[in-house]
Design brief:
The complex is a heterodimer.
Chain A lengths: L1 H19 L25 E6 L14 H10 L4 E3 L6 E3 L2 E6 L5 E6 L13 H12 L7 H7 L10 E6 L4 E6 L6 H5 L9 H7 L13 E7 L3 E6 L13 E6 L3 H10 L4 E5 L4 H5 L4 E5 L4 E7 L9 H10 L2 H8 L4 E3 L22 H10 L7 E5 L11 H14 L3 E5 L3 H9 L5 E7 L6 H8 L15 H12 L3 H18 L2 E7 L2 E5 L2 E2 L15 E2 L1
Parallel strand pairs in A: 1-10, 1-11, 15-16, 15-17
Antiparallel strand pairs in A: 2-3, 4-5, 5-7, 6-7, 8-9, 9-10, 11-19, 12-19, 13-17, 13-18, 14-18, 20-21
Helix pairs in contact in A: 9-11, 15-16
Chain B lengths: L1 H28 L4 H6 L5 H11 L5 H13 L13 H36 L4 H15 L2 H15 L22 H7 L3 H38 L2 H8 L4 H29 L3 H6 L5 H10 L3 H29 L7
Helix pairs in contact in B: 1-14, 5-6, 5-9, 5-11, 6-9, 7-9, 8-9, 9-11, 11-14, 13-14
The chains are: A alpha+beta, B mainly alpha.
Family (chain A): Belongs to the bacterial solute-binding protein 5 family.
Pfam families (chain A): SBP_bac_5
GO molecular function (chain A): peptide transmembrane transporter activity
């Protein structure tokens, strides 16, 4: 009798569990590997792109984050394009361009017959209106315009004097002074040309309903969840794009994103941990993509804090740290040892420089020469968040701590929440700190000047390194239009930085992506803005 | 009763005021500058200062706080510094996602937790009791991210039963009306999507349910044990009442009050958003929304978001207190 009651209870329990999990029975439409054939509605070629975060705005000129650019690069087009996997300059909405001898006038010939997604004609006037819109903004509305073109209308530093239309399809830019990376700046996703009709109507809401000329049109945005764009049927390049829809999904956790990729819930995923590369390579349904490196991860030393004011101490650190061991352990080999502040893919890279070799004895000698034969004690700042240029700041810091202990320096690892970390480091409160940088436009200026010039102290020169000779060279290089002469200047600049050693350059990492095996035509771009026009499924 | 509710609502005002003050001060006490975060690493010092002035961040803190409070009284939750959209507009979709997941998780937690607790008490010291209580102990201690990733691996990849992440099949998206997808799909008669939405709820729902389930089970068990020893239970049994009825009808009714309290508290916690679960399952809920806002020093979102969450928390607890008198008529509020 009693047994019967227990059974009835168990039945009850099981029943309630089934009730709770009722769901799984009543459907089965999804579940099969989703790639290619897509779901039950809309076009038949849908690509789901899994990534770490959501976009902030889809008006790329109004924001600075890479996740916004990733989507915008497929909705908007720029006057010039970068190469498929580098930052060389190619035609975009402008089919031809010409620079005057003095580097002060640029003339662009535009493609004809291009239309924005809302039907507005793309022409010289539209280009002028876009640049007018940006030039009349402020740092809050168009932050990148300020950093790339030196300010806004009326500012002394503003490089662009005027943008005018000459007929329907010719645009003339007049500059106040030559700007060497001008064409590269114009090619940045941030300066994608939007429909004047749309941004005049929507004002600062343009980012919620972006209208460009790109291969895909904006459809829907579910914040923190997904952004859907669909094929622009009237795209001006025949037969493109090949996909019908692209859905960008935010999955913050790297392991969960990998799970979603293996399951087929997403077709393409970025932010693959170097340690998971093997999993992808070993899976027949998947393929691994490498994003060409355009970054630098480094250990900065704040030269205003003793004993880092002494170049010998900084050189000693360069000899003390075993970069190869760090790359092997935490980048799983998906990185290249760094010896300069700019990556090798960037024009002007000085390959003649001999990197500091790993030599603890030499390091000890240098320390002794600097007056610290018994070492010293210091704080070593470790990044709290993974970044493409530094997958695990904490663990890298531990290796460095061990390396430094071997030369008698006692390093205490400290860390702060990310925004706090950046703020405190930028104020020069760290002895030595891990940090990095991903290039915006593939120009050397965007690395050396942005990170090590005296004018960047307070913004991105966290080391407070200040060298007058370097400054003169960098300023000269900014206006030098001759590529060879410019590269010579940067070669010299790298020598100075190498000698003064305000950093220990650690690695140029190769960010990894994973995709389903039947994806074709995908090329990861070093800037992180992947244009999906040629992507298709087998 | 109404008087009691009115009194309780009045008491909420100082609580919420104090809460806004604490949140306001804490988010400003930590270093980090929203203007810098908005403008990015490239920005010049002048640009940062100009933006600070524009956003009113250069004002003394009491001016800013007063401004914030006045806006709240006007029903204005402020504007996100990062996206420049009104917080009130942004908040609902996140809150809806959280409510859907929290309610689903709580249903699982209550059904399994309460029953497991009752049976454990009924058959105290039996194998079921031991197993259930050990599982409950594991339930409160197992790290959610591990459980979540394992769930994805086993049920998503190996068994290919459930989707790994997200709220919906993005290839067949739900058209949001209320933001609660379970309801939206039913309204639109999209039963295929309704099934999809439920399937997406299962893994995160179970992950989120483990802790409240375990707490509820243990609370039910101890409360039931106490009641089962009381005289009326013995009387009922000696009159030949069926054990099942004794337990589920008489004893449970008397033991449920502390369990209700726990359920109320846990529900409040779940509705505050679960950052870990939301992160692992890519769930666009309110926990991640506020957490991200902290990282970006998006003061209005943090302040107003936490205010809304706190408001929900206290309202649920008020609701639980009112429920006491429904469940147990001896409790009167006068």
């Amino acid at each position: 009798m009693k047994k019967g009651k227990i059974w009835s209870l168990i039945v009850l329990l099981v029943f309630s569990m089934m009730l709770a999990a009722c769901s799984s029975g009543d459907s089965g439409s999804e579940g099969e590997k989703g790639s290619g054939d897509g779901g039950s509605s809309g076009g038949n070629k849908t690509l789901v792109f899994g990534r770490g975060g959501d976009s902030v705005s889809l008006d790329p000129s109004s924001v600075t984050d890479g996740e916004s650019m990733k989507v915008a690069a497929n909705i908007f087009e720029t006057l010039l394009n970068f190469g498929e996997q580098d930052t060389t300059i190619h035609p975009g909405l402008a089919k031809e361009w010409e620079a005057s001898e003095d580097g002060l006038t640029y003339t662009f010939q535009l493609e004809e017959g291009v239309k924005f997604h809302d039907g507005t004609d793309f022409n010289a006037e539209a280009v002028v209106k876009n640049f007018e819109r940006w030039a009349n903004g402020d740092a809050d509305t168009f932050p990148y315009y300020q950093s790339m073109f030196g300010g806004f209308k009326g500012d002394e530093g503003h490089v662009i004097d005027s943008v005018t239309a000459d007929g329907d399809y010719t645009v003339i830019f007049k500059l106040k002074r030559p700007q060497a990376p001008f064409l590269k700046n114009v090619a940045m996703t941030m300066f994608g040309i939007g429909s004047p009709t749309a941004f005049e109507k929507d004002g600062d809401k343009f980012g919620d309903n972006p209208v460009g000329t790109g291969p895909f049109k904006f459809v829907e945005w579910k914040r923190n969840d997904s952004i859907t764009i669909e094929k622009n049927e009237d795209y001006w390049k025949d037969g493109l794009p090949k996909l019908d829809r692209v859905i960008f999904r935010s999955i913050p956790d790297n392991a969960a994103r990998l799970n979603a990729l293996i399951k087929g819930d997403v077709d393409l995923a970025d932010g693959i941990n170097p340690s998971d590369a093997g999993t992808i390579e070993g899976d027949d349904n998947l393929q691994l993509f490498e994003r060409p490196s355009m970054n630098i991860g480094y250990l900065g030393m704040t030269v205003t804090r003793e004993p880092f004011g002494d170049a010998k101490v900084r050189q000693a650190f360069n000899h003390a740290i075993d970069k190869q061991a760090i790359i092997d352990a935490f980048f799983e080999g998906a990185a290249e040892i760094a010896k300069n502040p700019i990556p090798p893919s960037v024009s002007g890279y000085n390959d003649a420089i001999e990197g500091y070799d790993f030599d603890p004895e030499k390091a000890k000698e240098l320390l002794a020469e600097a007056g610290y034969p018994d070492g010293f004690e210091m704080d070593l700042w470790a990044m709290p968040v993974p970044r493409p240029y530094m997958p695990d700041g904490q663990k890298v810091a531990e290796v460095i701590q061990k390396n430094l202990a071997d030369i008698g320096v006692k390093a205490n690892i400290v860390s702060y929440e990310w925004a706090t970390y950046l703020e405190k480091a930028s104020k020069g409160e760290a002895d030595a700190f891990l940090l990095g940088w991903t290039g915006d436009n593939g120009d050397a200026d965007n690395f050396i000047y942005a990170l090590l010039d005296r004018e960047s102290i307070g913004s991105n020169n966290y080391t407070y390194y200040d060298n007058a000779e370097l400054h003169d060279i960098l300023i000269e290089a900014q206006t030098e239009v001759d590529e060879d002469k410019r590269n010579e200047l940067y070669a010299k600049a790298q020598e100075i930085v190498h000698e003064d050693a305000p950093w220990v350059p650690l690695a140029h990492s190769i960010p990894l992506l994973g995709g389903s095996a039947d994806i074709t035509g995908f090329k990861a771009h070093p800037t992180g803005s992947d244009i999906l026009t040629n992507v298709d499924f087998k | 009763m109404l008087q009691y509710i009115g009194k309780r609502l009045l008491q909420l005002i100082p609580v919420l005021l104090g809460m806004t003050f604490i949140v306001f001060m804490i988010i400003r006490a930590i270093p980090g500058n929203p203007a810098q975060v908005i403008l990015g690493q490239q920005a010049s010092k002048e640009a940062v200062a100009a933006l600070e002035a524009k956003l009113g961040l250069d004002q003394p803190w009491y001016t800013q706080y007063f401004e914030f409070l006045m806006n709240i009284f006007r029903g204005d939750l402020g504007e996100s510094l990062r996206t420049r959209s009104p917080v009130a507009d942004e908040l609902w979709p996140y809150l809806a996602a959280t409510i859907e997941l929290a309610v689903f998780a709580m249903i699982i937690a209550v059904i399994i937790g309460v029953n497991a607790g009752i049976i454990s008490a009924w058959f105290q010291n039996s194998w079921f009791d031991y197993t259930a209580m050990i599982l409950a102990l594991i339930g409160v201690s197992v790290p959610i991210f591990w459980l979540g990733l394992m769930g994805q691996w086993v049920f998503g990849i190996e068994m290919d039963l459930l989707p790994t992440t997200g709220r919906e099949d993005v290839r067949n998206p739900v058209h949001a009306i209320t933001g609660l997808y379970v309801i939206d799909t039913l309204i639109q008669g999209r039963f295929d999507q309704f099934g999809q939405v439920l399937r997406h709820l299962i893994l995160p729902g179970i992950a989120l349910a483990t802790i409240p389930m375990a707490i509820i089970a243990r609370m039910t068990r101890s409360s039931m044990l106490e009641v089962m020893r009381s005289d009326f239970v013995r009387t009922a049994r000696s009159k030949g009442q069926k054990m099942f009825l004794v337990v589920y009808k008489h004893a449970l009714k008397n033991a449920i009050i502390p369990v209700l309290t726990v359920i109320g508290l846990q529900m409040g916690i779940l509705l505050g958003g679960a950052i870990l679960t939301e992160t692992i399952f890519g769930w666009p809920g309110i926990g991640r929304y506020i957490y991200d806002a902290i990282g970006f020093r998006d003061y209005p979102v943090v302040q107003s978001g936490i205010l809304v969450v706190a408001f929900i928390f206290v309202m649920i607890n008020l609701l639980v207190d009112v429920l006491y008198s429904v469940v147990d008529p001896r409790i009167k509020y006068d």
